[in-house]
Design brief:
7% of the residues lie in helices and 18% in strands. It is mainly β. It has a 9-stranded parallel sheet, with no helix packed on it. A two-stranded antiparallel sheet has the order 1-2. Strands 12-13 form a two-stranded parallel ribbon. Strand 1 and strand 2 form a beta hairpin. The longest helix has 8 residues, at 18-25.
């Protein structure tokens, strides 16, 4: 099979161990795993560059320190998978569930997450340039000190996430949620927050959004905490 111009050996419908995957990796040809069960396998430090995992069961798999650049994860189930320190440059995650996964210290340059469930995932200390996340759930995720400056954030649920010290300057949010997120020391100058769920934000915390653009409705919700009612002037 050929994916993006690269020939892949296809392995379908099998339960695979580290020994089998390591043997396949030694062939030097990227593999395309389809409907495979790799649950709880220890794949730490293997070179799996260019591999494709499609509709695979990857729960609790350890990819720690693995070389996974250009890898593709499509419709996979990988709860509690660990990618600590892995090289994931130019990889993509599409329609997959990696809730409570750990990407701590991983290299995520030019990585794309689309339509993924990343609830509780740990992105602490990642090395990420041009990281793209869209239409994904990051409820309770840990992503402190990330730069989203000038980013367009589309349909991302950051509810209850740890976003301390993130840089959202000039970012545009489209149908996102920051409900009850930890936004301590974040920067929002020039950010467009008009399409963001700011539930749980108290008026005393509103100074964190200094310089951001909010809607008339959002302003009214904040001022309502003082018992004030904002009435839009009639034309």
């Amino acid at each position: 099979m050929s994916v993006n111009g690269t020939t892949h050996a296809t392995i379908s419908g099998r339960k695979l161990t580290r020994r089998e995957i390591e043997a396949e990796a030694q062939s030097g040809m990227p593999a395309h795993l389809v409907d495979c069960d790799v649950q709880e396998a220890n794949l730490a430090r293997l070179t799996l560059a260019g591999w494709t995992f499609e509709n695979c069961r990857l729960q609790k798999v350890r990819f720690d320190g693995a070389v996974l650049h250009d890898a593709r994860f499509v419709s996979c189930r990988g709860a509690f998978a660990s990618f600590v320190g892995a090289d994931l440059a130019d990889a993509s995650f599409t329609g997959s569930d990696f809730n409570n996964g750990s990407f701590r210290g991983a290299g995520l340059a030019s990585v794309r997450f689309a339509r993924c469930k990343l609830t509780g995932a740990d992105f602490t200390e990642i090395k990420a340039l041009d990281l793209t996340i869209e239409e994904s759930v990051l409820v309770c995720a840990k992503m402190p000190s990330r730069s989203f400056r000038k980013a367009r954030l589309r349909q991302i649920d950051f509810a209850d996430a740890d976003l301390r010290k993130c840089d959202f300057r000039e970012a545009v949010f489209e149908a996102c949620s920051l409900r009850n997120a930890n936004l301590a020391d974040c920067r929002f100058e020039g950010a467009d927050l008009r399409r963001v769920d700011l539930g749980g934000i108290r008026l005393m915390d509103a100074t964190r959004f200094k310089g951001a653009v909010i809607s008339h409705t959002q302003a009214g919700e904040l001022l309502a905490q003082l018992g004030l009612i904002v009435i839009q002037a009639s034309r």
